[in-house]
Write a structure and sequence with these properties.
Layout: E1 2-8, E2 15-21, E3 29-34, H1 42-53, E4 56-61, H2 77-90, H3 92-106, E5 112-117, H4 119-130, E6 136-140, E7 157-162, H5 170-180, E8 185-189, H6 206-222
Helix pairs in contact: 3-4
């Protein structure tokens, strides 16, 4: 069962909302789920429920609240452009501050992990280098990862890329990270494109999605998840 909580950014005192779910069964840790540019849409909601069912307390910050509170969009080209405009208007520093607030909220009860998709994948990569108290992170198809490959990391990470992704050249990103962060495992999923964690989307292969989630859970378990 999910609810909505209000948290405060430590950077500027901005109050933002986050989708919240308590763990089912014994608590294994906390997870911050970081959205794509389409807001807390049904795919994010499904991911929150999925992690909650596995025993994690989950927070999914509405990182566009500074632009449009409660923003949720469809998948039309104009929705994509609107999301890009929100990213540019808000900036990564404020979005990372919201993620830090989520980490701080969850941390008193145990280790905190992060998983992010598209924009969220980029933010999880940046969070592993810039934020505090993150136990591990799983970054899916983040377009800003390669450009920030030199960022020193403070938390273990894995990266997931789709072979058919027209926006992110999987082999080039994997080669770049092999140079700068050989400790980071980059998984390339041959049957999937961009957004493959979103069940039912055209570029989503069910087996690839399940395997990526299994690998993400294994990473979290290896870094403190009960």
């Amino acid at each position: 069962m999910t609810d909505t909580v209000t948290l405060t950014s430590g950077l500027d005192g901005f109050e933002f909302t986050a989708l919240h779910a308590q763990p089912e069964g014994e608590r294994k840790g906390g997870i911050v789920v970081v959205q794509e540019i389409f807001g807390l849409d049904p795919y994010v909601q499904a991911d929150v429920a999925r992690w909650s069912a596995l025993g994690f307390e989950v927070l999914a910050p509405s990182i566009f609240d500074r632009a449009v509170p409660g923003y949720v969009a469809g998948r039309a080209p104009e929705d994509f452009q609107t999301g890009v405009a929100h990213v540019n208007a808000i900036g990564t520093a404020k979005m990372l501050s919201d993620i830090q607030a989520c980490i701080d909220h969850l941390a008193p009860l145990g280790p905190v992990f992060a998983v992010g998709y598209c924009l969220g994948g980029s933010l999880v990569w940046l969070a592993a280098g810039k934020l505090k108290s993150l136990a591990a992170g799983s970054a899916y198809y983040g377009s800003m990862i390669a450009a920030n490959a030199d960022l020193p990391l403070n938390a273990p990470l894995i990266v997931h890329l789709g072979r058919k992704d027209p926006h992110i050249p999987a082999d080039a990103v994997k080669a770049r990270l092999a140079e700068t962060h050989p400790e980071v495992t980059v998984h390339v999923y041959e049957n999937s494109g961009h957004g493959f964690n979103n069940d039912g989307r055209p570029d989503s292969d069910p087996e690839d999605a399940r395997l990526a989630r299994k690998r993400t859970l294994a990473l979290f378990q290896a870094n403190g998840a009960a």
